[in-house]
Amino acid sequence: MKRKLDKNDEPEEGPEPKKTQPSKPDEQQKQQPEPEPSFSELGLDPRLVQAVAKQNFEKPTLVQRKAIPLALKGQDVLCKAKTGSGKTAAYLLPILTSILKRKATDPTPFTAGLILVPTRELADQVFKAVEEFSAFCAKDIHAAKLTENVSDAVQRSLLANVPDVVVSTPARAWHSVNSSALSLAKLQFLVLDEADLVLSYGYDEDMENLSRSLPKGVQTIMMSATLSPELDALKEIFCRNPTILDLKEEFGAEDEKLTQFYVKCGEEDKWLIAYLIFKLQLIKGPCLIFVADIDRSYRLKLFFEQFSIRSCVLNSELPINTRIKIIEEFNKGIYDIIIASDERPEAFGEEAAEEGEEEKEKNSKSKDGQENQKSKKKRKYQKDEEYGVSRGIDFKNVAAVINFDMPTSASSYTHRIGRTARAGRAGIALSFVIPKDQFGKHKPTMVKSCEKDEKVLAKIIRQQAKLGRKLEPYNFNKQQMEAFRYRMTDALRAVTRAAIREARTRELRQELLRSEALKRYFEENPTELQHLRHDGELGKGMRHQAHLKHVPDYLLPKEGKKALTEQQIGFVPFKKLDGKDRRRRKGRPKGRTFKTGKDPLKTFKVRRKK
């Protein structure tokens, strides 16, 4: 008989191997996951890799592993990936690498990259990312941001140094090109970040004008969180046979850590539940609250002030410097609650068609000219058209997202809840839904958009089911909540329209002073910024009730705060606690007593007249 292989691995004669044996190792290799490359193996400049290591980025994400090699080869890329997946680094790192390679042989200055974003907050975020990535090559990379409200002369001086990379909104970029302050004659890279929002923010004409001024052969990179019809229009204008990356599998583990709830309740119960959640700290950690409009955000803030709950407001009326400062301090953990007004709801697909039909019907019915009269009225407050909260902004460590007012589309809901459960952390999404039969019963705080909450919820449930997610009902114990209702009613009555109008005016005045007159002072004295808090009290002129700031123990059930949501317990009466009368204390008689424990009425001695 033939011997087997010995220790020296000498071959032995035996039966012929089966034909299927050579294919087994190949199948095993296919089943094994491919090793994840590091940033140094992606072909990036060593100085950029050093800057990435300084920011504690261990390994590239899926978006970066797929997009960076394609961008370095000069291909057009259209990438769809979730918010927080590292899309900014996916297009910045290859662009900066190409600029550094070109400058090694040709140091001639010209603008090589143009990055277009829909909002000013996102532009500031991208500009800071450019500075961080070019920390070890700052002499070779010069960037400019064109989103601040400055005069044309100041803007020309910023562009006079011929920056390598320009970050701007489409409106500002076209204004600079049209005024000959910015030259795109030698442009090599064009980036559209959050590309599906660019057209929905009203930049149609600006994008068409910019497309005519671009030279031939510009490499285009488009990043988006959704593949919407708007992308098809932009792809035809700016791209040439782009490589489409639809990255879905990256977020399976993170989606499992996102818990979604909804509460069906009336308008008045919505305020009661919000009061209980934050006063009793049923939800802990940094929280984002989305409301329908600006008035709504100030009403909720003033309502929280009645209970000594600190919060800050984020809306389009505030100066851009203030908005950026609020986001930065929220990410540092200075603020716990941000009340953000989502004033530009997104609607794609079926939602957009439905909204378009409704607008046509309204326009056809309004023949008496009432709408024209409304349009002629002057706006009291000037809003920033380049504002957005639900998309693009990098909120960090958000523990919960609360939809105090439901969005108008399922896609907008997806972008809102994308603020939490990021980077492997757990998160909660809680939405208040008003049933149609209860809509309009509380007129002082009614919002028209809440009339369709149930329809929007049905669309959201269908959309989330396709992604493998579930929305569960969150049941509060209504009997235990009733003990707090009178406190909520007192606080809500104190928040009048006059108080809201006064709070808006006061905060605008304060923030304008901080952002304009004290800007240079705070740059020279950064420690003084710690004394300025954007979550201060605004309702100085309204009626305050000191007793609302503390929750008496007799309002809480025996089992504690969790009994309000988890257990069904009977009503706890006011007069009895543990079977005893609350007003009677140990060692005290029934009558009125002093410290001596004696009834003073029984110690008086009466003398009779002789």
UniProtKB/TrEMBL annotation:
Start-end of Basic residues biased regions: 582-595
Coiled coil regions, renumbered to chain: none
Domain (Helicase C-terminal) ranges: 257-482
Domain DEAD-box RNA helicase Q: 37-65
Locations listed in the record: Nucleus
Catalytic class of the enzyme: hydrolase
GO biological process, one term: ribosome biogenesis
Acidic residues bias locations: 348-358
Chief place where the protein resides: nucleus
Compositionally skewed regions (Basic and acidic residues) per UniProt: 15-29, 359-374
SUPFAM superfamilies, per database record: P-loop containing nucleoside triphosphate hydrolases
Domain Helicase ATP-binding residues, every copy: 68-245
Keywords, comma-separated and alphabetical: ATP-binding, Helicase, Hydrolase, Nucleotide-binding, Nucleus, Ribosome biogenesis, RNA-binding
Signal peptide interval: none
Region (Disordered): 1-42, 348-383, 575-610
Enzyme Commission number(s) of this protein: 3.6.4.13
Location of the motif Q motif: 37-65
Purpose of the protein: ATP-binding RNA helicase involved in the biogenesis of 60S ribosomal subunits and is required for the normal formation of 25S and 5.8S rRNAs.
Family to which this protein belongs: Belongs to the DEAD box helicase family. DDX56/DBP9 subfamily.
Protein name per Swiss-Prot or TrEMBL: RNA helicase
Originating species: Chaetomium thermophilum (strain DSM 1495 / CBS 144.50 / IMI 039719) (Thermochaetoides thermophila)
Source organism phylogeny: Eukaryota, Fungi, Dikarya, Ascomycota, Pezizomycotina
